[in-house]
Each structure stands twice: as structure tokens, then as C-alpha cells.
């Protein structure tokens, strides 16, 4: 069998809730557990022996992805290419536009993965399910359970419990439809192009040079899944492993924790260990080999330290992501915070945020993508984020705040956005 995988990475206008972190690097390249977000997708695809080529599909300028793609080819030894849409074509529009590249070599099927989800993706198991179906599936969706309340933020699937055929699909319904939600991971038969082509052609009548009405975009969810549901050609594969979206910077902290945990199963060598002349490590921590961490520092649980970062004596960090070329000076404390690239945090300073984890008392709860401000116009407590090139002086406290790039903070801050 020969398969391909397409990863939908969007473009500069997407991922706005991820700012200010996506101001400096395309959101799909933001490091989580030491790796750019979509490297986790590529790694999951590379582990499926039948996947021979991975195509990243988006509308970021190609030069922003060039180095990353070269690094990925070197690391995983499979074909990887970036295909650039000339504008946002929608979740199925890009696939249709590049159908020749996807179909070349006659793959039996191809995976499609949303670039902004994370998880312990059971791709091989899903493939086994897809190929074992007695009637061929045009599209198989990975589904997972959500709470009744949260389900309406996702694509909702009603299945035949015995055959797993999809009877009904609604994208982000306004009232409850089903607890079973779309994970944004699919296996498509190449026959899907015919379907998308029909939609494409039916819209040509409306096509004009001014595409302000978005007639050129085709959405996989609304235009393909909704009409296919109930025709016996779409199936759902139930995923009971960890899965989440990465929409906000807060969800990056959550994803960081879970990917670090996953390394126990997949890449143990990426996790830092305790030893003489090494910092003290609590549970799961990733330290880039080029980072310098003082042996008296205490890191963990759930910390990632990027390239060439310098962590001083007596520093305490937990539940945080420290990006490349950042310095944290002695005795500072960093909790539930993302510290952007090339930043400098003085000595005896405290950076602290508030976690936005899923409710542990509710089974199947996902993260809430809490808006920045509440109804009274006050900033909702969230993780603290420092954009790149931020300078925080010594002996201050920055609590539940978002600091935009290139700021020189003069004092302490609490619950503020510092522009
Ligand atoms: N290449 C490309 N990618 C795109 C485009 N539009 C969106 N994407 C990418 O496609 C993914 C989904 O995009 P959204 O449009 O933001 O959808 P969503 O709100 O995340 O909902 C989708 O994902 C949920 C799971 O996370 C699903 O539950 C839901 O049904 C839907 O598929 C993201 O990775 C985004 O970057 C486009 O025009 N071109």
C-alpha cells in the first residue's frame, strides 16, 4: 500500500488567538516540547510505514517554511514538501488545487491532518480500521468524545454504533447534536477529488475576479462532510487517546505537558535526567542540547528550554516554555509562562500565569479557549506570555500578563496587556 499525508497549516491570517507568539514565527512552527508544533504531526506520519510523502499545505510565504522542510527531510528521511496556496483556499480547496501533486504515484489513500491539533495520534490503528471496512470509505474521520457543552465548538458526528458509518455531521452546531467530535484528522480515498471537483465546478458560475465573497474557498467540513454524511460513504474511527486543539498560547502549555509525557513511550532520550553537575529535574523536562542550565536550578514538571537559552543559579521553572536565546538570571521563578525568543529576565524576578487546563472533574473535558477579556472588559486570568526580545528587570513580578515583543518593562505588572 502507498499512502501520503497532507498537513493543513493555514497562513498568516490564521492563528490570531496565538498572538503575540505567532508574530515572530508561523504558528505551526511554534515549539512545543522542544519541536515545532507540526513536527509532531510529521513524526507521527513518519512512524506509519506506508506513508511515503508528507505535504504541508498553507499560504505562508514559502521562504518561511524552507529551512524547516529541509530540517524535516534530513531528520525523517521521507519526502516532505511545502505547497503554497496563492490565497486561503479553505480546508478542501487547497487539497483540490494540488490534486495532481497529491495523486502522483497513485496513492491508495491519503491522510489529512489539521496542523493546529495535537495528540497521541493512532494513525496506524485508524488506517487498519479504514482498510478493514467492507464497503469502501470515501472519507474516514478520527472522532473523540467531548462534553455535551463543549461539543458545539467542534464538528459533531452522529454514527451508527455498530458499523461506525457516519449518519449525520454538523459543523459547530448551535445546539447539541452529539458528544462525538471531529479531531481534524482524516483518511481520504483519492475518489474524494471527484466530490470536491463537483463543488468547485458548481461554483465557477459565480466566479469573478473579485473573490470578496470567498466563492473560491471550499471547506472540507461544510461542503464535503455534511453532504456525504448519511450516504454510507463516510466512517468514524473512535480515538480514546489524548487529543486537543492548539488555539491559544495557554493550550501550548497544555500540549507541551502531554507531548513531554508521550516521550516516555516514543522518545525517552529527549527527556532530561538527573545526575551529578546537572540541574535538578522533576518529572518531564526537555532541555535543548545547546542550552546552559546552572546545576543549582530546579526545573519541572513540564518545562521546555530552547536553543542556546541560559538558565542561571537557583532558578525555579515549572509548567513553562522558555524559547531560544533567552536568559533567565539567578534565583528567578517562572510558572505557567511562555518566555519568547531573545528575552532577558533579571534576577530574583517572578513570572507567573494561571493555567487554563480542562476541568479534571468532567470526563472528556477539553480545554476552553477562553476569550482574552471577560464581559466586564477585564483581562481573563491566563498564562503569562512574553513576546520576543522582551527585557524584564530584576526583582519584579509579572502576573497573568501578556507582553508584546521588544518591550523593556520598567516595573511589576498584574493582569495587563503591555503593548
Ligand atoms: N492550507 C490551508 N489550511 C487551512 C485553511 N483554512 C484552515 N486551514 C487549517 O485547517 C485547520 C482547521 O482550521 P479552522 O478553519 O480553524 O477550523 P477549526 O475551527 O479548527 O475546526 C476544525 O477542526 C476541529 C478540530 O480541531 C474540528 O472539530 C472541526 O470540525 C474543524 O474541522 C487549521 O490547522 C488551519 O490552519 C486554508 O484555507 N488553507
Automatic annotation (TrEMBL):
CDD domains: M1P_guanylylT_A_like_N. It comes from the Eukaryota. Residues 281-418 form the Mannose-1-phosphate guanyltransferase C-terminal domain. Pfam families: GMPPB_C, NTP_transferase. Residues 4-196 form the Nucleotidyl transferase domain. GO terms for molecular function: transferase activity. InterPro entries: GMPPB_C (IPR056729), Hexapep_transf_CS (IPR018357), Mannose-1P_guanyltransferase (IPR050486), NTP_transferase_dom (IPR005835). Belongs to the transferase hexapeptide repeat family. This is Mannose-1-phosphate guanyltransferase alpha-A-like. It comes from Homarus americanus.
